[in-house]
Design a protein that fits this description.
The structure holds two protein chains of two kinds. Chain A is mainly α. Chain A has helices spanning 2-44, 63-71, 75-105, 111-124, 128-134, 162-167, 173-191, 194-205, 209-217, 222-233, 235-251, 256-268, 272-304, and strands at 46-51, 54-59. Helices cover 74% and strands 0% of the residues of chain B. The chains are: A mainly alpha, B mainly alpha. At the A-B interface, helix 1, helix 3, helix 4, helix 5 and helix 7 of A face helix 1, helix 4, helix 5, helix 6 and helix 8 of B.
């Protein structure tokens, strides 16, 4: 009786302390995230016009979305391109960074230097420098080309002149074009997987060596080791990396829906239509991710606590 | 004997394959830096000269001079440090506090709220920016200012735009730039620390807050360094929020660099020089922290 009372007292203190620790976050969440988010939902369903001293809202319900899907000449096309490119870029980025993470996690001479090199894209690719490197100016080709739209390497710039290399092989033109497209794509995706590699390395570090020792005693091959130990142990990191990659790819400047919306906001000072554009796109992404990630998410949730 | 030879050859083949793979991939990572250095040192003639590939015929520092001038370097550096970088450092502290609440205590709504943390990682910031803009222009959290005006009959109006508060305030409440990622990293780390740490402190009469400050923070340097590096890099590079909320002399380096990037009158070398000037400080800090950082990445368990 006495002990249970004491226990309940400790639990109450624990509850109160926990709530106090996250209280500032809760306040900030309401003021700086939830309220703005609700307002942006409202923008999507309104026609927003400027008037003296503020903005005028006129509720139009689904008109913005109807316009985007039926009348806007670009929106559906860019939406479909963006979504399909997400479907193949995300698995490739996750797989590539997993492979690189595993390699960089192995013990070999020079791995500290190699890891430092792989951190470079994290510094450079996070912002405006990448814009400079990827935009064309004064007729000069960009230093690197990003995104699903970067298909041609023949106009110079870029890492390797793959087209010239491939024409040397005297393959049919369609094949050469396809191959150089895929090579360019892989280069571009690698450039965007810096943080993912770091997250995978940190995940790999937490797998206890004892598991591998046991499997070696049991006579498992490296391939079995990967599927029976490494991959299951990395499930949570894989989910974090996937969510992170989806977000990064979704908001990146190489994504046409996002860049169109952003130029509409800054160029035409319009808020209603771009918000509707982004919300609809966001919903599509969530639905697609839901279809593919629900099994992963279930196992993740069980491990949360 | 034969088996030994076979084993040795396979290990040599594997290490060669690894290096070929790493070098070719590392080349991709280093290539832009290489081009930036080479282009920024070239004169206009060298750029147009087809025979010059990477190594310029005449070295020039004019591009750097122009870039520093156009970047308004000292003023922009000052506001970068004072606004984005400072809020990044605030986030390093506040996210740790929030994450500790999620990691160590039990309360009913915890899982739902942590789900909300994960959800904030996924919300595109473009959606939030315009409502935040109007919110900062007429800062009135929970209608507090309106109520204050009604009571006093005054006409107070708080405009936070073009001040550091646009970034400091969200950081203080741990909902700033990418704070969801930081809370996640911290939480995983705190969950891995043995509970005996705090229990010993509680026996010595500490409360949860002093236990956090005296026991948890000192034993979390690895997590703190990891978050600091990420936060520094992301805030240094931040461009969209600062471009929208900060004007004129408050513009940080990232926004100034974007302006240079869009200026078609400038030579390409100036843009490259500007980009180099922009990344060098972060690169230097990273190289200094690098050894510690790599070690800390090894130790921070992102898996729980």
């Amino acid at each position: 009786m006495k002990t249970s009372k004491k226990k309940r007292g400790i639990e109450a203190i624990s509850r109160r302390a926990g709530r106090l620790f996250i209280l500032p976050w809760e306040i900030g969440m309401v003021i700086f995230v939830l309220v703005p988010l609700l307002i942006s939902v409202a923008y999507a369903f309104c026609e927003v016009t400027f008037k003296v001293g503020g903005m005028d809202y006129h509720f139009v319900f689904l008109d913005n979305f109807k316009y985007l899907l039926k009348e806007d000449p670009y929106y559906t096309d860019t939406l479909i391109t963006s979504l399909t490119s997400l479907l193949y870029t995300i698995p490739i980025i996750v797989a590539l960074s997993l492979i690189l993470g595993i390699i960089l996690n192995q013990k070999f001479k020079g791995r500290v230097i190699m890891r430092a090199v792989f951190f470079l894209p994290v510094i450079i690719a996070a912002g405006v420098v990448l814009d400079i490197l990827t935009t064309q100016i004064n007729g000069q080709p960009p230093v690197i080309q990003l995104g699903a739209t970067a298909t041609s390497m023949s106009d110079g710039g870029g890492y390797l002149d793959t087209t010239a290399l491939l024409t040397g092989l005297r393959l049919p033109e369609a094949v050469t074009g396809m191959m150089s497209k895929y090579i360019t794509m892989i280069f571009n995706l690698l450039w965007r997987s810096g943080i993912q590699i770091i997250l995978f390395i940190s995940g790999l570090q937490t797998i206890p060596d004892s598991l591998y020792e046991v499997s070696r005693i049991e006579g498992a091959s490296k391939w079995e080791e990967f599927w029976m130990i490494t991959f299951p142990m990395l499930r949570d990191v894989t989910l974090l990396v996937t969510v992170f990659t989806v977000v990064e790819e979704m908001v990146s400047t190489s994504n046409e829906v996002m860049s169109n919306a952003q130029s509409m906001i800054s160029g035409q000072q319009r808020y209603d239509m771009p918000t509707a554009m982004i919300w609809f796109y966001f919903l599509c992404v969530i639905i697609i991710c839901g279809i593919f990630l629900v099994p992963l998410f279930r196992s993740f949730k069980r491990k949360w606590d | 004997m034969n088996k030994k030879v076979l084993k040795r050859t396979t290990s040599i083949v594997i290490s060669i394959a690894r290096w070929v793979f790493l070098i070719s991939v590392g080349y991709i990572a280093l290539y832009p830096l290489f081009v930036m250095v080479s282009n920024s040192l070239m004169t206009m003639e060298d750029v147009l000269d087809q025979s010059v590939v990477y190594i310029p015929k005449t070295l020039t520092l004019d591009n750097f001079k122009t870039a520093i001038e156009k970047l308004n370097f000292l003023t922009a550096l000052k506001s970068t440090l004072l606004i984005p970088v400072l809020s990044g450092m605030i986030e390093v502290a506040t996210c740790a506090i929030t994450a500790y609440g999620f990691a160590r205590f039990n309360f009913k709504e915890k899982n739902i709220l942590f789900g909300l943390v994960i959800a904030t990682i996924a919300v595109p910031s473009t959606l939030l920016m315009i409502p935040q803009y109007t919110g900062f222009y007429n800062f009135d959290p929970l209608k507090a200012v309106t109520i204050f005006n009604k009571i006093t009959g005054g006409n107070a109006h708080i405009n936070l735009l073009n001040t550091g508060f646009t970034m400091w305030l969200p950081a203080i409440f741990s909902v700033g730039l990418r704070s969801g990622v930081f809370i996640f990293i911290y939480r995983q780390f705190f969950k891995g620390l043995p509970k005996e740490f705090e229990e010993a402190a509680y026996v010595d009469g500490a409360n949860p807050f002093t236990a956090f400050l005296r026991v948890i923070v000192p034993s979390s340097t690895v997590a703190i360094i990891t978050v600091t590096v990420f936060s520094l890099v992301w805030h240094w590079n931040e461009y969209y929020i600062t471009n929208m909320f900060l004007l004129e002399d408050n513009r940080p380096l990232s926004v100034m660099l974007k302006i240079i990037a869009g200026d078609t009158k400038l030579a390409n070398g100036v843009r490259m020089a500007g980009a180099l000037i922009f990344i060098i400080p972060v690169l230097v800090i990273y190289l200094i922290l690098q050894r510690k950082f790599i070690k800390s990445i090894d130790k921070v368990g992102i898996v729980g």
